[in-house]
Amino acid sequence: MTSEADTILxxxxxxxxxxxxxxxxxxxxxxxxxxxxDIIQPEKQxxxxxPFEKLDVTNRQALGQVISKxxxxxxxxxxxxxxxxxxxxxxxxxxxxxxxxxxxxxxxRELGVKQIxxxxxxxxxxxxxxxxxxxxxxxxxxxxxxxxxxxxxxxLGDYYVRKxxxxxxxxxxxxxxxxxxxxxGGTTDYAVAIFYEAVxxxxxxxFLKPETRLPMMYMPDCLKSIITLMEADFARLQHHxxxxxxxxxxxxxxxxxxxxxxxxxxxxxxxxxxxxxxxDSWPESIDDSAARKEWGWQPDYDLGxxxxxxxxxxxxxxxxxxxxxxxx
Length: 328
Fold this sequence. Notes:
Blueprint: E1 7-11, H1 18-29, E2 34-38, H2 44-47, E3 52-54, H3 60-70, E4 72-77, H4 83-88, H5 90-111, E5 115-117, E6 120-121, H6 145-164, E7 167-169, E8 171-173, E9 175-177, H7 190-200, E10 203-206, E11 213-218, H8 219-231, E12 243-244, E13 248-251, H9 252-262, E14 267-270, H10 275-280, H11 289-295, H12 303-319
Parallel strand pairs: 1-2, 1-4, 2-3, 4-5, 5-7, 6-8, 8-12, 9-11, 10-14
Antiparallel strand pairs: 11-13
Helix pairs in contact: 3-5, 5-6, 7-9, 7-12, 9-12
């Protein structure tokens, strides 16, 4: 459990989760207590509200220097190459996702970091995994390099818990939907892009089939799950690096129908690409009863509430000319 005296490091702070987790943590613990870091320069929101360090997590020496400089006690390790980009460059995905995490674990062990959060993903599952209400403890048979690295990361984190008593925690996140961070190379990113293009163009071409159903979570619930898990009593946890968490499941056509309730002229067409094969290997729904039992997980948003909130915020931003979106 993080105390007010602890200094926190967030790696991958410019990414989808990090760009919103850093402000949330700074609001809780104070701006000077949360060090944002990334290999790229983030938005001014992160650099002007607290410390920022340019950091490549595959550079063990540089990582250790940042930990020592700020006397880091808690790390939220978010730096990673996601699923679709990982298939384009699997060697880089392995280097960043595995070697980067190993560096974090080893540096933490050597330099006195007491708690680590590292997200996992539904990408750990695969064709041999039950796709409906996927259990907490089940077959892990990923078909992507991203999934392979996340399985290895879960096992590595749990090993450091058993071997060294390091407090490593993680959630298997479904698709994360956000109005702040743009799509970042994930298979579930259609569920972010569709909102931007609905508001800007009133149409969208989806790279998945209409019936493709995947588990999802709105960013406020994602942040809630991270913070709640990290504040949980370690003694209550039977799992550590691999908690199933979810909030809702829907298909692409169900999401489109929900958007049309607010934007009746919205049109969608479907042109599945290589990401369809990835999506077909992932669950349709998740059983997150272990997270609910061990640390009280409970989401706040369903499809309807999330859609209404996303469109309200993006429409207002578009009206003010502040909706920056690069259609790819």
